[in-house]
Amino acid sequence: MAVRVQSEAFDLGVETARLTKGRHDVGAVASFVGIARENNPDEGAEPVIAMTLEHYPGMTERQLEAIEAEARERWPLLDCLIVHRYGRFEPGDPIVLVMTLSSHRQAAFDACQFLMDWLKTKAPFWKQEETASGQRWVAARKSDDAAAKKWSKPA
Amino acid sequence: MKILYFAWLRTEIGMAEETASPPETVTTAGALIDWLAALSPRHGTAFEKRNSIRVAIDQEFAETDSVITGANEVAFFPPVTGG
Fold it and tell me: Does A17 touch chain B (CB under 8 A)?
């Protein structure tokens, strides 16, 4: 299990080296880094100066661990890492890292995408954006729900 | 029981958490919302947007008809926006 919720920055290269070090069975590493950006396409042209992420300590870790366990059950992963930051970020700052390791690329790609889609709808984080006209809470996006639903197992 | 608020529920109600002792007749998350909404005008205003409020009971996502009896911690928040 490798889930971290932290305010500190992370380094993709360091994390990749740490997870692959000494292993000869890893054939594929897929990673996703989510970055704070200036423009919110849902909200017109006003640039985002910064955003603050708050979360639900305790529940966040539980949810991320549950999501990770689900990914490990569905794909033959050799290892997996989720790092999600909280605090105040400016455009360009990395916010979330998901990394998956497997023997072959397909499991790594699919599990990485699954983890991102699921944490978007299941991890208790909330974003507040700062613009020149003030602060506003970011609304949940229907497209995120749709992205997560496509991974639902058939009943 | 401990009640937690996040995001705009926290800012509208003006606190991150409080301890509440609802009567035994309040058995579901939905009934708890009605009871909390009557505590103060700020609670009332925040809980008006009921369709935009999600609930977790003891750190697990729940529904408004979920039972809260015996719960230690109930949290209210808007739909999540992480990632």
Answer: no
